[in-house]
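Deliverable D4.2, example record:
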Amino acid sequence: MPDTVSHATVADAAPSEAAVFRKVSLRLLPFLFLLYVVNLIDRTNIGIARLQMVDEQKLLDEEAYALGAGIFYVGYLLFEVPSNLILLRMGARAWIARILISWGLISSAMMFVTGPWSFAILRVLLGVAEAGFFPGIIFYLGDWFPARMRARAVANFMLGGVIASMIGNPTSGLILEALDEVAGLWGWQWVFLLEGLPAVALGFITLAYLTDRPEQAHWLTPAERTWLARQMEGERELLRHSRSHSLAAAALDPRVWLLIAIYFTVAMGDNSYGFYIPTFLRSQFPDWSPFEIGLLAAAPSVIAMAGMVLIGRSSDQTGERRWHVACSAFAAASGWLTMAIAASGLLDDYGIDARWLFLLGVAVTLTGMKSMLPTFWTLPPTFLSGAAAAGGIALINSVANLGGLLGPRIMGHVKTETDSFTGGYLIMAGTLLLGGLLVLAVRNRSRPREPSEPSGA
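Output generated by the structure prediction step:
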């Protein structure tokens, strides 16, 4: 009888899995979400700034803008892997804080651009400063959420990318209009100054707010800390026995390079979209103000946000990854194709207002590309762990993001040569179609057996 009572007491004391992960989600995901919103606003606010820098002030021409937009990824490539390995040694809290502060200062310094050279140099430095942020967060989430819950966690974090488009473009457009010529500064200079400062402030907040590992989480009860730490360590033990866990193994693994090729395609499309969407929309709505263009650019993000959540949830519930990523890529390809058809003038003879078909294509494009990402990032941990996971994720993100250098260059070159973006839309449609087909070449592996569930779950 005493043994029965003792075992019952232990079982009753076992923390509920749902309660633990609810606490973890509420503590970490909203804050990381906010950091990602600020990150993408600082990276892509040149899209709105371009409306003055290129179209009005002629500070840059189309080729210089496209080069500067994409050259960001040169610094990103060079420092991404070292940055993530430093994060592994120093801990996420201190290193992410450093990243935030340095990128915020450089983003604000963009207000001092005087021409193509200064624009390109500061964009490279911004890439160096931001290197390691995104893959660092992906790696960090792997310390707090088991594999079966990770797609939803990553999707909730990456919703920040959609929200950044929803609030970033209208906010940047409003600053551009409202503060133009205030204190002798152009509106684009105020955009860079005011949107870079929040990252600096959040860097210092990160030092006080983030927790490196579950066993240090003072905001969990002692029983919850112990249970979560054991759960995550149990999953890591399973990975150590069955998967690559050295950086060299990750760099030589052909599956890593297949994922790089896949992510390269979405990086081309996503960055072409992010850096040019205000310009794409102005080509269809030439009489709209920068603020109105910003609002219009935000509208498709509502659909994309719903798509990300639903695709991530479906992938976790079914355990299926490849088709969720591939079908999202095919949707993005169809969206780019729709934009090309609407912009080509082929529908003019039929009395169709192609502008709204174009906007539908924009929504499908953004939804498809954004829905690819959360489930895509569940694929590397299926065969990488430890230093291989930290370095491999960074390697995938850094090398593949060279697509972010190529995509805007293609758009700028097509626009210069043809005075239209239609050819660029078609190239992106083909690129995303290829990305979807490559996803289907990834070998489908069964999910790892999870550590035993607590009796209170």
